Each structure stands twice: as structure tokens, then as C-alpha cells.
């Protein structure tokens, strides 16, 4: 089968044998696999050269190993790429499995073969059955939605608060939609691309701000936001965010790069700003699936197109070069389709 393989200088297409499921695995026919921003910036040692990429995928169970109990042939499933953890460290036992030291060891599409291929064999602990109302096309975005959901939920924001979101990529847009659904009254999104600013307003932003238009403090309207979300991976954003948040505000960071952020320590201290990180998800995966199944969160505006596996290198180029693209789904079964 044709698969997209991680190499340090970019993804390459290779012919690979169809995977054989082990005793604890299910063989999944991939319906859709999303390409993530973290795939575009994939690097060793987390990503292993020669691994099939793709960690945002859904599909149909074709075969199950001898020890698989909860899933059967024909089940519609989503894959939680971080579903295999040690299960007995203090973090696993206290509901924070995202902090387990083993979380990177199995990571599907990163350390183990993933879903940018027609077939994937994955451990049963990664599988979630799709609720009836969830289409494959929309459920393919459950992983980034779970990431955004944890960032928003763990920030402490409640009904009636105001917020500022930095970045109009998939995580920023999904965070915006969640803030709107969750009762934030005023949501500013800061994003340089005009197309992404339009999308931000479409998914629920009160206003979308072009950071190139002037000092951010002058572009904001109304009371200063108390909750900030950085989904950019651009370190300079932390300085802006700390500068404009209201006293007592909280900045939740979920995007990062290898460059270090810097900010004015006096802003942090005099305003008692809290800086915090949010990493992947724990129980949010289930909740995100339910939000997609019920239509509570509409992920359709994020989908920029559906391409076959053979187009993965071109899709990486397009996503890296054009802010118009938010999320490509890859599917040999549905390439070019706008349904299902
Ligand atoms: Zn992702
Ligand atoms: Zn653990």
C-alpha cells in the first residue's frame, strides 16, 4: 500500500506491506486522516524516521487480534493517537495520563505507524467507537478538537468571561468555536491572514484583529480580556498576550516552537498574570466526539479539501505556504468528496 513516511527533510511516499494486527490490535481501514500543524513541523527524536505519519484518523475495523474484546469487525472508530500509556504511574492514576512519561513512546503517527495510508494496525486502547450522529468526515477532526477543548476547559474560563485567541489555525478556530459555545461573551481573535480572520468570525469570534494593523492594545475594543489562548507557536505572541491581558488574567499556551518566548516580566508581575500550558487531552477525547456527533461544534468550516495519499507531499507544501488552507483531510476512499 502507498503510505506517507516521515523523514527529517519532509514526508515521502513509499510502498509498504499491508499491516498485520497483533493480538491487541485492530486493523483499521482509514476513511479520513487529517494533516496537523505538528506534522508540518515534525522533527526527530519525537518523530521516528521511517514511520507512517498521520495521527488524526477515523475508519472502519476490518480485523481484530485475538485479545481485542470491545471492538468488532465493522465498527466505526476514531483513533486516540496517545491512548497507550503506562496505566500505573501517579499521573495515569490521577486522571492526567497526558503527563505520563510513556505518552510519546507509542504515539500513533509519531513513534508508531499512523493513518496517512489506506490501512493502519493500532492497539485497542487507542480506539473510540464513533457515536451514531458523527460522520467520518467530521469525526476526523476529533483529535484537534480535543486539544482545543482541554486548553479552554483547563484555563478556568466560565460563562460571561471575555477571551482573546492568538492564531486562526485549526486549534485557534476550534478554541474560538468552543468559547462561543461555552458562553464567552466577547472573543477577539488575532490573526495576520485575512482568510483566517474571516473564518474566525464565521466560527464565533466577536472580532478578528490583524496584528499588523498597529499596536495590539490599541486595536482591542472594550474591557481587557481575562483569558488568553496562544495557539500560534510564535514565541513573540507571549509578549503581546501578557501585555494586553487584564490584571489577574491567564494565558494558556498550546502552540510552541523551538525558539524561546520572551515577555516583559513587569507586566507578568504587576498584573499577576498566570502563564500555563495545556498538552493534548485526557477525557476531552470522548467529550469532543460527543460535540461533533451532536453538531454542538461544527468543524466543516475548517476542512479545506480531501486529497488522496499520493498528494500528501503537495498537501504539506500547500499547508506550509498558504494560510488559506486550514485542514486537509487525506483519504484514498473519499478524495475530492465534500460529503460523509
Ligand atoms: Zn494533531
Ligand atoms: Zn503512566
How does the SSE layout of this entry go?
Layout: E1 2-5, E2 12-15, E3 25-34, H1 37-40, E4 56-64, E5 76-79, H2 90-93, H3 103-106, E6 119-123, E7 127-129, H4 136-139, H5 142-154, E8 162-166, H6 170-181, E9 186-190, H7 194-202, E10 207-209, H8 216-219, E11 227-230, H9 236-244, E12 250-253, H10 265-270, E13 274-277, H11 284-293, E14 303-307, H12 312-321, E15 327-330
Parallel strand pairs: 8-9, 8-11, 9-10, 11-12, 12-13, 14-15
Antiparallel strand pairs: 1-2, 3-4, 3-6, 3-15, 4-5, 5-7
Helix pairs in contact: 5-6, 5-11
The structure holds zinc ion (2 copies).
Explain the overall architecture.
The protein is α/β, with parallel strands linked by helices. The chain has two domains: 2-141 and 299-330, Medium-chain alcohol dehydrogenases, catalytic domain (Quinone Oxidoreductase, Chain A, domain 1, Alpha-Beta Complex), CATH 3.90.180.10; 148-277, NAD(P)-binding Rossmann-like Domain (Rossmann fold, 3-Layer(aba) Sandwich). Helices cover 26% and strands 21% of the residues. It has twelve helices and 15 strands. The strands form three sheets. Strands 3, 4, 5, 6, 7, 14 and 15 form a seven-stranded mixed β-sheet that branches. The chain has a six-stranded parallel β-sheet with strand order 10-9-8-11-12-13, sandwiched between helices. Strand 9, helix 7 (194-202) and strand 10 form a beta-alpha-beta unit. The two termini are 23 Å apart. The mean pLDDT is 96. One zinc ion is lined by residues 85-86, 89, 91-92, 100, 102. Residues 85-86, 89, 91-92, 100, 102 line the site of one zinc ion (ZN).
